[in-house]
Amino acid sequence: MDYEKYMKEALREAKKAQQLGEVPIGAVIVKDGQIVGRGYNRRELDNDPTAHAEMIAIREASARLDSWRLNDCDLYVTLEPCPMCAGAIIQARIDTVVYGTEDPKAGSAGTLLNILQDERFNHQTNMITGVLKEECSTILTTFFRALRQKKKEQKQDKTNG
Amino acid sequence: MDYEKYMKEALREAKKAQQLGEVPIGAVIVKDGQIVGRGYNRRELDNDPTAHAEMIAIREASARLDSWRLNDCDLYVTLEPCPMCAGAIIQARIDTVVYGTEDPKAGSAGTLLNILQDERFNHQTNMITGVLKEECSTILTTFFRALRQKKKEQKQDKTNG
């Protein structure tokens, strides 16, 4: 199924983030069956608070298509967008957003807010959720579990040293 | 007064946008009395839906300070932030947001939403509104009035031609 095909590509991006020690979130933008933008979270690497997967993918797609309007594009992202990314998706006039798993802490596409489908703004997207949800969720929980373990060990090292 | 001093700098940025035919919105970021980031709306010039004044100022400040955390920074912007920019402000952990005039169409710092002070997110900002409100509002209404006039003339030219 196409949704899963492109979500797998978003997961490939997430894995790039993971390998670099970044919170593993990935996104791709698809137009007419072609991937026109890719991104993974690079906040720490770039020291840029706006360097989320969706933002990077949107900027890449806009540059490639030479247009800030991405009306005929769909965005696939492993985690539900935060307010910034949901707002950028509206700004870019993305047609459909497909995401893997919900974000209970900042999700702004249905969980805490639904910026993508607020009729007071000048654009609304279609939305499909739960695609490859388990993989999208597991990559994050595994990352954070390892991070907690590492911090615990560092703390113990300090106590012992 | 300092609020007005820095809002005047944000207005200077807005005027740069105006001169380039962009919707005139400007922003500056201030840390310890120094401007560490500047930005004006460049959406059309850059063909980038994320190239709002606030986003550019945040990215510049993060690059200059070599940190995605802008905790000790204040952001001045002529127009109330949209969801994307309000979300970026939260991501960057900005301390205080000062804005000139409300945005009834997309304002997400009190008008349609208040992303800056939603306690469900992991950061909230202080907020000061209405600083040099008239200037910040007039530059926008003048711009849009001229744009409408230009479109009307172009339509008439077509009809007459």
Question: What features would you describe in this structure?
Answer:
Two copies of one chain form a homodimer. With 161 residues, chain A is α/β, with parallel strands linked by helices. Chain A has a single domain (3-160), classed as Cytidine Deaminase, domain 2 (3-Layer(aba) Sandwich). The first copy, chain A, has helices at residues 2-19, 43-46, 53-65, 83-91, 133-160, and strands at 26-31, 34-40, 73-79, 96-101, 126-129. Chain A has a five-stranded mixed β-sheet. In chain A, a hairpin with a 2-residue loop joins strand 1 and strand 2 (34-40). In chain A, helix 1 (2-19) runs parallel beside helix 5 (133-160). The termini of chain A are far apart. The A-B interface holds A 43-44, 46-52, 55, 58-59, 62-63, 66-70, 82-88, 90-93, 105-106, 108, 112-113, 115, 118, 120-122 and B 43-44, 46-52, 55, 58-59, 62-63, 66-70, 82-88, 90-93, 105-106, 108, 112-113, 115, 118, 120-122.
* CATH homologous superfamily (4th level) name of chain A: Cytidine Deaminase, domain 2
Number of domains of chain A: 1
Q: How does the major sheet of chain A shape up?
A: 5 strands, mixed
CATH architecture of chain A: 3-Layer(aba) Sandwich
| SS elements, strand count of chain A | 5
**From N to C, what is the helix and strand string of chain A?**
HEEHHEHEEH
CATH class of chain A: Alpha Beta
What distance lies between the first and last C-alpha atoms of chain A, to the nearest angstrom?
54 Å
Please state the oligomeric state of the protein chains shown: homodimer
Rg measurement of chain A, Å = 16 Å
Shape descriptor of chain A: elongated
Low-confidence stretches of chain A: none
